[in-house]
Amino acid sequence: MKSSTFMLIFSSLLLILVTDVGAETGKDNYKTYCVQCHGLEGNGKGINVADMSTQPRDHTDAKEMSARTDQELFKVIKDGGQSITKSVLMPPWSSTFSDEEIEDLVKYLHQLCKC
Amino acid sequence: MSYHNSKFYHGLRVILVISMGWITHAEAAGTGKDILDTQCLSCHAISQKTPQTLKELWERKGPDLSSAGIKYKSEWLTLWLQNPTRIRSAGMFYGNHIKLGKKLDEVDQSSLVKHPQLSSEDAKQVTEVLMTLKQNQALVTAGDYKPGRISMTMGDMMFDKFKGCLACHQIEPGYGGISGSEMYTAANRLQEDYLISFMRNPQAWEPKSIMQNKNLKEIDLQKLVHYLRALAKENVK
Questions:
Q1: If pLDDT is split at 50, 70 and 90, which confidence band does B7 have?
Q2: Which of A35, A48, A88 sits opposite B95 (nearest CB)?
Q3: Would an 8 Å CB–CB cutoff place B111 in contact with chain A?
């Protein structure tokens, strides 16, 4: 029993160490790259928005956000708005984020919309 | 005084004048380096690696200067150091300078710090030293940019509708996104070959840059620099 508890703690620590190398959390990436347009509260009211022809998505809008699949969210982050026939103002982030980081961002979007 | 003596003294005078000139030059370079070391390094990196983590990005107060010699135009640098104006409306990293507003998020002006102003002589000497810093020289190819023209209408459309750059950059004071640097002075500030290189692959310069790699074609990189040059001419600042 004691040995299995030790193994569980050891594996968890190892997992934390492995996942921590290089990758940033979804929340930190959102705060750094997404907030400029999607806003401090994720409601689409970022500092860049005033002159935009298309308004950024409100990530707190559960109805709108539920209409998107995780695959679509992943694609729009990775390849930009045009990849899903949306606005060019949403840029492609494939050179900024790893696929794992994009997956974390998708999870974080679910937290924001509570959906 | 004999002919040989006068020739000797003339030679000595020439050596003295040359040496004095060399010493003055060396002192100037020394002063520029001193100013850089004492006044600039608390906000700018001149030899360290550019931010590799978000934490490092958030903590950075001013642009890295380790490649200043292949990035900036020296004439602009000398003038700007004497009369520094804000190039990024929301500061170096916008995330440190924003707050909730009534309609949209706003820049927290009280959090922004003014850049120190240098005298004309100090500005020249600092510029001289900065122009020797060329850490990322391998990323820039001299002559990469081929001068050409684009109509303002086409340039505006490309910058906004086709490539979406307007989301983060202003093309005239008060028009466009503000998390990125103002674009109407970009061609005054930055060397064209650097602009091509940075837009081609921002992450090669800064892994955590908030500028995305839009996978621009070579022809579009050239057109965008034509446009930035035209913008700078329109907005002489």
A1: low
A2: A35
A3: no
> Above 0.90 for ipTM, yes or no?
no
- Name the class of domain B137-237: mainly alpha
Residue type, A30: Y
Instruction: Print the domain residue range for A60.
Output: 25-113
Judge whether B60 and B51 are in contact, CB under 8 Å. yes
Residues of A whose CB is below 8 A from B168: 36, 48
The pTM (predicted TM-score) of the whole model is 0.85
Q: Do B177 and A96 touch (CB under 8 A)?
A: no
Query: Structural domain boundaries of chain B?
Result: 1-135, 137-237
What CATH number does residue A82 fall under? 1.10.760.10
Q: What is the mean pLDDT of chain A?
A: 89
Q: What was the pLDDT predicted at B84?
A: 98
Residue A3 within any structural domain of the chain: no
Cα separation, B157 vs B142, whole angstroms: 28
CATH number for the domain formed by residue range(s) B1-135: 1.10.760
Q: Is the pLDDT of residue B2 over 80?
A: no
Tell me how close the Cα of B236 comes to any Cα of chain A, in angstroms.
Answer: 23
- d(Cα B109, Cα B127) in Å, to the nearest integer? 29
Mention every residue, 6+ apart, whose C-beta is less than 8 A from residue B70: B134, B136, B137, B140, B191, B193, B194
Given pLDDT bands bounded at 50, 70 and 90, which one contains residue B124? very high
pLDDT for residue A43: 98
The number of residues in chain B equals 237
Kindly determine whether residue A95 and residue B212, on different chains, have CB atoms separated by under 8 Å.
yes
Q: How many domains does chain A have?
A: 1
% of chain B exceeding 70 in pLDDT: 86
What is the three-class DSSP state of B98? strand
Residue A19 falls inside a structural domain: no
Asked whether the predicted pLDDT for residue A48 surpasses 90, the reply is yes
